[in-house]
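Ticket #4471: structure output looks truncated?

Reporter: J.K.
Steps to reproduce: submitted the chain below (95 residues) through the standard prediction queue, then opened the result file.
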Amino acid sequence: MNGGVLHAIDLLNVREISDAKAGFQYFEFHAMPDLIQEALTVAADTDSLDVEGPRLDELDWGQIPDDSVIVRRFEHHFESHPTDFAPVAGHPGHR
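Returned output as attached by the reporter:
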């Protein structure tokens, strides 16, 4: 998967973090935007990283233990809300 929530915070810019929070909310991972916000706070306090980093990772992995959880959520959402997605040229059903 990844190097943890603090690693992601370190790699992403402000817009990407905002987009990630919105994406998690859209796909109904409702705890994740708050977790990301908490990670931003923790990342600013370097004294707490050793303790808080592993705790945040456990919370993250408790919500999304592996990428297949995200894939299943996407597939379910795609099946139940197909008009939310633009058609793909060359894909069956595209006119």
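Triage note (M.O.): checked the attachment and the full token line is present. The helical segments are 5-11, 14-26, 32-44, 49-63, 67-80.
Status: closed, working as intended.
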